[in-house]
Amino acid sequence: MRLCIGIISTVLLVTGVPSAAQEQQQRQKIIIQTPFGPKEVDAPAPGTPEPPAQQPAPQQPQAAPLPPPAPASVPAAAQPAPQAPAQPQQADEAAPISLHLDNTDIYQIIRIIGDTLGLNYIIDPAVKGTVNINTSGNLRRSDLLPILETILKINGATMVKVGNFYQIVPANTAIRQPLAVQEQVSQAAPDDQIVLQIIRMKFVAASEMQRLLTPYLSEGANIVVHDAGNILLLSERRSNLRKLLEIIDVFDSKVFEGDRVRLLPVKNNLVRDLINDLKTIFAGYGFSESGGGAIRFVPLERMNSILVITGNQTIFAEVERWIDRLDQPLANAGLRNYVYKVKNTKAIDIQVVLANLYSSQVPRPQAPPTTPPPQQPPPSPFAPVAPAQPGPTTPSTPAG
Hints:
Distance between the termini: 227 Å
CATH architecture of the domain at 96-175: 2-Layer Sandwich
CATH topology of the domain at 96-175: Ribosomal Protein S8, Chain: A, domain 1
């Protein structure tokens, strides 16, 4: 019986009373703020003087206030759970990162940067190359993705984001991937991925702009013209796309401003005759329209005017001077025939009025007969014979 009581007392002592090691562990761990985020550190030694009321209770150690010697500490219960990861992100952004790789396979550098940034990626087997990179200073996490895009660009590859994955493919096959389509210029992001930009031309023909932009396309880029809508479909890296959009803005938005276009009227001649003379004259100056020169003449026959297009404002004065010389009234031109179709009266009446106005010796024309003249009736066989005129008589001879 005594043995049973002793065993029960020992069990109660072990299970009911917390060990000294557990109490010491609860008192020794506190959370403080550091430049790199919240950190759990050891509490001051039990021998340090501190108010008894501030000792953490065994039942709720998390709610106990921090001791006064550590003013930067915050109770564990006061730390909000959703906001806690924000500080480690800033710490990771400021953490030093350096790259020193010589003759490293491109797959290895993709794996290093992809694991650091937590990227999901698929690599095309056609992507191959080596990398040599050495950084002298510390890099940030935000610098790693542009570095990876530059490495891929040097090795003729690119990244195309599809959903939550990045497809790493050769640059010349990127246009067959599901590229991001954008139409507004403001959507151009700072990365260097290939996107499909839709550009609606305003004044310049899309085919003309295609010939202008083709020498400035990067490797793997492509440009398609839709003539019916005067639209360009441009597949290009975003870094080079911004440069191309600036070129388009210069040549397309200012082509019909007042300092490049003039409408000059022709008063005494036909516009098509003067344009031929002007083209011949300014071809001698070195301005050729067919060769893509600096001046163009567009005839507007309905207005009998010439539209002059040029980027050199000083040429307009020379064009106006030659038009004044060529557009002279015709002298001694001789007689000309003009045909006017009368609508509301008879042409003969208009002729008489014009003849009286401009010539006093023009005879009045005879009006055509309206009815045929009466015909003479044939002579009747019973008509009386006219008496013979008296003349000299001759003696008659008796029969016999």
